[in-house]
Automatic annotation (TrEMBL):
Positions contributing to tRNA binding: 17, 68, 70, 116
Catalytic reactions of this protein: an N-acyl-L-alpha-aminoacyl-tRNA + H2O = an N-acyl-L-amino acid + a tRNA + H(+)
Subcellular location(s) per record: Cytoplasm
Subunit details: Monomer.
Organism name: Marinomonas alcarazii
Primary gene name: pth
Phylogenetic classification of the source organism: Bacteria, Pseudomonadati, Pseudomonadota, Gammaproteobacteria, Oceanospirillales
Recorded GO MF terms: peptidyl-tRNA hydrolase activity; tRNA binding
Protein name in UniProt: Peptidyl-tRNA hydrolase
Enzyme class: hydrolase
Site-annotated residues for Stabilizes the basic form of H active site to accept a proton: 95
Record bears the keyword Transcription: no
One Gene Ontology CC term in the entry: cytoplasm
Length: 194
C-alpha cells in the first residue's frame, strides 16, 4: 500500500456547526494540525482550510473543505488535480452513524453509506471509491428520519468526550496510517473503546 498524501476532514463551515457530530472529521484534522504545529490557512483555490505537514517523513496535505458537507468533493477534487494525487492516496476522516461513539474504524475503499460528504467526493473523483476512510463513530439516533437533525447537533457531553477520545487515540497511529500500514493500525484501533 502506497500510503496517504491527502488527509481530508469533513464538516460544515461556520460557528453554528462547530463541534457538531457531523464535524468529527474536521475536528480530527484540527487536532492533527495542532499536534504537528501546522497552521491551516484558508485557500480559495482549494475551497477549504489547507496546510502542508511532514508525517512519518512524508509531505502530506491537510484539508478541511469549507463548502457545505454535500459539496465536499469540490475541495478534494481541486487539491487532487493541483498536486496530481490519485484517489487511493486520499484518506477521508468522517463521522459514522453505524458505529457507536467511542469507536473508530479504518478502511480502504467502499461505498458512501448514505454520507453526503462521501457521496460528493466519490462523484467528483469520477466514481472512484478507492480512497481510505477513517470513520469516527457518532452512533445512530434510532430512526432514519431523525438522522439529518441528529448529525447537525452537538453530541451529549458524554458522547462528545468519547468522540474526542477516539480522535486522540487514532492520532497516535497517524505515522502508520500515512505510511499505509493499515492492517497493523486496524488491529489496534478496532479493539479500542473509549
Amino acid at each position: 500500500m502506497a500510503g496517504f498524501k491527502l488527509l481530508v476532514g469533513l464538516g460544515n463551515p461556520g460557528s453554528e456547526y462547530e463541534n457538531t457530530r457531523h464535524n468529527a472529521g474536521a475536528q480530527w484534522i484540527e487536532a492533527l494540525a495542532r499536534q504537528s504545529q501546522c497552521p491551516l490557512r484558508s485557500e480559495k483555490k482549494f475551497f477549504g482550510q489547507f496546510g502542508k505537514v511532514y508525517i512519518a517523513g512524508e509531505e502530506c496535505y491537510l484539508l478541511i473543505p469549507t463548502t457545505y458537507m454535500n459539496l465536499s468533493g469540490k475541495a478534494v477534487q481541486a487539491v487532487c488535480q493541483f498536486y496530481k494525487i490519485p484517489p487511493e492516496e486520499i484518506l477521508v476522516i468522517h463521522d459514522e452513524l453505524d458505529i457507536p461513539p467511542g469507536t473508530v474504524k479504518l478502511k480502504q475503499g467502499g461505498g458512501h453509506g448514505g454520507h453526503n460528504g462521501l457521496k460528493d467526493i466519490i462523484s467528483k473523483l469520477a466514481n472512484n471509491r478507492e480512497f481510505g476512510r477513517l470513520r469516527i463513530g457518532i452512533g445512530h439516533p434510532g430512526h432514519a428520519s431523525q438522522v439529518a437533525n441528529y448529525v447537525l447537533k452537538k453530541a451529549a457531553p458524554d458522547d462528545y468526550t468519547k468522540i474526542e477520545q477516539t480522535i486522540d487515540e487514532s492520532l497516535r497511529y497517524v505515522d502508520d496510517i500515512v505510511r499505509g500500514n493499515l492492517n497493523a493500525v486496524m488491529n489496534q484501533l478496532h479493539s479500542f473503546k473509549a
